[in-house]
């Protein structure tokens, strides 16, 4: 059994619980930093894809996981960030300016959209955001002079302090670019949750009536949450466009929005770790299924058979299993296992039973 004994207030507000937890995070950071030296180009690309999905998951996690506002339209903000970044690059704006500006512009647009949309609750808000995602598809086609329409656009190599970074030509440098962005976004997210604004998000998620009674401006807090969420998602969209190399209006379909929401639910709704766990599932599931089909074909003595919709079918089955048996997702299961080891032999079987009733708040209305 391990007990953390706090002796000053700094220990209570710092991002890590103790030195042991900090050392684990530093080891993890060292491993992912050294990944390009022991991975080939294919798996390095998959790691890059996972990090991009994690950034997008962090964006949606702010809105859905920590503010309690359901959204099925974040693919629209991925598209906004992607196209804004490429249009600025084509206009001659340096990448170090175009990239953050794409996120800022997406966040501002998200805040403007949030003013009428966030008057809705629950399923109605989800439907409204889904309609917005469908509408953006048509807007991309209608604004063909800027977006390329159905033909799409191509992402050029970016210049970062004199170094040309390209997803295909320099995969290692592009991986480090995505890694740096993901670390910065994660650290910003951690500090946001420790700030009064982040605590307002959580209070709003648990009970809007109670949050309003404590003096929280509900409309303003929702709008800020939507803006931050859209801004981070826009950064992920800019990186996703550079990673894909070529994209059009069909790249950011409403299916991406649904997949993004399912990702954070499976990973663990309401936790930063959950965005990364869910991104690992989304990133590596297609490759795992491809390898599994080859193994089955080799064992059966024939070629592997392509099954349409297999990936989304497996993904949906995983989601159903977690909703039925572990609503807290992968991180929730890991948290329970870790707690068992930390409190052994004093762990009680029903320690987490209260959370089932706690989740039945007005956030589900």
Automatic annotation (TrEMBL):
<feature type="transmembrane region" description="Helical">
    <location>
        <begin position="95"/>
        <end position="115"/>
    </location>
</feature>
<feature type="transmembrane region" description="Helical">
    <location>
        <begin position="174"/>
        <end position="192"/>
    </location>
</feature>
<keyword id="KW-0472">Membrane</keyword>
<dbReference type="GO" id="GO:0005886">
    <property type="term" value="C:plasma membrane"/>
</dbReference>
<keyword id="KW-1133">Transmembrane helix</keyword>
<keyword id="KW-1003">Cell membrane</keyword>
<feature type="transmembrane region" description="Helical">
    <location>
        <begin position="297"/>
        <end position="325"/>
    </location>
</feature>
<dbReference type="InterPro" id="IPR001851">
    <property type="entry name" value="ABC_transp_permease"/>
</dbReference>
<feature type="transmembrane region" description="Helical">
    <location>
        <begin position="20"/>
        <end position="38"/>
    </location>
</feature>
<keyword id="KW-0812">Transmembrane</keyword>
<feature type="transmembrane region" description="Helical">
    <location>
        <begin position="122"/>
        <end position="142"/>
    </location>
</feature>
<feature type="transmembrane region" description="Helical">
    <location>
        <begin position="252"/>
        <end position="285"/>
    </location>
</feature>
<feature type="transmembrane region" description="Helical">
    <location>
        <begin position="44"/>
        <end position="63"/>
    </location>
</feature>
<feature type="transmembrane region" description="Helical">
    <location>
        <begin position="70"/>
        <end position="89"/>
    </location>
</feature>
<dbReference type="InterPro" id="IPR043428">
    <property type="entry name" value="LivM-like"/>
</dbReference>
<protein>
    <submittedName>
        <fullName>Leucine/isoleucine/valine transporter permease subunit</fullName>
    </submittedName>
</protein>
<feature type="transmembrane region" description="Helical">
    <location>
        <begin position="223"/>
        <end position="246"/>
    </location>
</feature>
<dbReference type="GO" id="GO:0015658">
    <property type="term" value="F:branched-chain amino acid transmembrane transporter activity"/>
</dbReference>
<dbReference type="Pfam" id="PF02653">
    <property type="entry name" value="BPD_transp_2"/>
</dbReference>
């Amino acid at each position: 059994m391990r007990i953390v004994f706090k002796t000053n207030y700094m220990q209570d507000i710092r991002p890590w619980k103790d030195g042991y937890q900090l050392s684990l995070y530093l080891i993890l950071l060292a491993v992912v930093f050294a990944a390009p030296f022991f991975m080939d180009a294919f798996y390095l690309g998959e790691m890059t894809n996972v990090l991009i999905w994690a950034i997008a998951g962090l964006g949606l996690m702010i809105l859905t996981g920590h503010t309690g506002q359901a959204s099925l339209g974040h693919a629209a903000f991925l598209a906004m960030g992607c196209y804004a970044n490429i249009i600025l690059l084509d206009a001659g704006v340096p990448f170090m300016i175009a990239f953050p500006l794409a996120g800022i512009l997406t966040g501002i647009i998200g805040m403007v959209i949030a003013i009428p949309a966030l008057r809705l609750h629950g399923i109605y808000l989800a439907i409204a955001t889904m309609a917005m995602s469908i509408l953006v598809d048509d807007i991309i086609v209608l604004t063909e002079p800027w977006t390329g329409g159905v033909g799409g656009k191509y992402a050029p190599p970016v210049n970062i302090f004199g170094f040309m970074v390209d997803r295909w030509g320099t995969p290692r440098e592009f991986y480090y670019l995505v890694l740096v962005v993901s670390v910065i976004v994660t650290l910003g997210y951690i500090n946001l949750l420790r700030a009064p604004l982040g605590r307002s998000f959580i209070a709003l998620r648990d009970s809007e009536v109670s949050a309003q009674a404590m003096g929280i401006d509900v409309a303003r807090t929702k709008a800020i949450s939507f803006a931050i969420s859209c801004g981070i998602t826009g950064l992920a969209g800019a990186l996703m466009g550079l990673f894909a190399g070529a994209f059009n209006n069909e790249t950011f379909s409403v299916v991406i929005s649904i997949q993004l929401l399912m990702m954070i639910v499976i990973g663990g709704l309401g936790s930063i770790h959950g965005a990364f766990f869910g991104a690992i599932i989304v990133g590596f599931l297609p490759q795992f299924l491809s390898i599994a089909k080859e193994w089955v074909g080799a064992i059966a003595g024939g070629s592997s058979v392509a099954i349409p919709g297999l990936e989304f079918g497996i993904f949906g089955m995983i989601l159903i299993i977690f909703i039925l048996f572990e609503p807290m997702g992968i991180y929730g299961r890991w948290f329970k296992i870790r707690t068992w080891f930390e409190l052994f032999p004093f762990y009680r079987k029903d320690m987490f039973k209260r959370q089932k009733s706690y989740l039945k708040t007005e956030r589900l209305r």
